[in-house]
User: What shape does this take?
Amino acid sequence: MLELSRQVILADHEIDLQAVRSQGSGGQNVNKVATAIHLRFDIRASSLPEGFKEKLLALNDQRITRDGVLIIKAQSHRTQERNRNEALGRLKALIKSVMYAPKKRVATRPSKGAKQRRLDGKKKRGQHKAMRGKVET
Assistant: This one.
């Protein structure tokens, strides 16, 4: 079971994990051992709340297919277990990214003192630059 929050928990049967052979360097071990993990997660058929499903499907992410299946490949580690944990961690991070809406920005105005300090700083900087000119004798 993958616990995303107190209310949202994904069952093991919703996440399909397959061990495949890794790509890249690693010597003979790459050719013999299936250490990479392909994680498949069907967003539409999952038990996630509808709002989360819509947000996930609306993401412009190349790992999400047209059918609504999220595919994550983890192969950076030498062991299958560490790759499995990494793939599940990436799935958890992606789902958590759509769980919380960003706070709306509240427009504020600078105070009178802040405006004055800004202008004073600009005047001081201008005077400093004016002193760089040629010295008349």
